[in-house]
Amino acid sequence: MLTTLLGYIGAIVASVFFGSNYVPVKKYPTGDGMAFVYVFSNGVMVVGLIAMFINGEAIFVPTGLLGGSLWALGNLAVIPIVKTLGLGLGQLLWGGTSLLTGFLCGKFGLFGLAKDTVGNNAMNWGGIACIFCSMVVFFFIRPHLEDSQQEKDEYQPINVLTEHSEKTNQQSAEFFDRIPKQFRMIIGFSLALVSGMFYGVNMVPMKLWVQAQSTPPTTLAFVFSHFTGIYLFGTVVFFTYCIVKRPPQVFPSSILPSFISGAMWGIAQCGLMTATEILGFAVGFPIGSAGPSVIAALWGVFVFREIRGVRNLSLLVVSFLFSGAGIALLSKSR
Fold it and tell me: Alpha-carbon distance 252 to 67, whole Å?
């Protein structure tokens, strides 16, 4: 009973922190996002080190590095997604896609995973169907996104300190700012779907490794290996970017928010890994992936005012009802 309760607590922690971890950086400039990815990965790594000391042991295996790298691939698209779709809609889409991908992996034993068994199969599928309906409803919400010009006027990247850098900065508008408005939604939706699929499979290597062990270790023991994969991937990408793009875009005002964002994600991932290990891919992973969309949407309504108007708010309420029903059915299906 206590073990099951710990699994649900992990899902709640994942929901709150996944749904909030991009809030610290939302109002700060991120340029093309490469510096954000690197600083973010440092925040993740610090949480991994803390988890290692709390747990008293750490496992360093290639499968952990692979899982972390898969997640980091999806994270590369976060900044363009948030800028083109907004935090609420973007997180709902990549969270929903991640949820469905992870659920199908556990339900059907994809990639060599052991199939998850549940007490009530009908409730389990019903819960997923409700969450899918929530995604469909949210698709029709049109977020109100602020123009990023004010952000550009208030903050300047480090590279304006030289004459050459200043000229380069003036010529290099952010990629998503150069996209015609009619195509931004299409690109944002596409990136969110691809990102969500990478998020959905990022813990498959961990589960495969655990299956192969006669005495599986605690989840926190695997965290260090997983987070190291994220940090190494982010470091390689950033230094490659620094070599290719001269000078790189680095905003001093965004460094601390990006680090905090990564640390919050690390806490959330610890919760999700615990929920998935205890409750399984067919229950724990969907709950921990659906909750963040609700939290992120609430940020979008009450703080950033991205979702407003009678039509949008009505659709959001309907979406929340479907999400709540889905989470309840998934919880009861175990």
Answer: 30
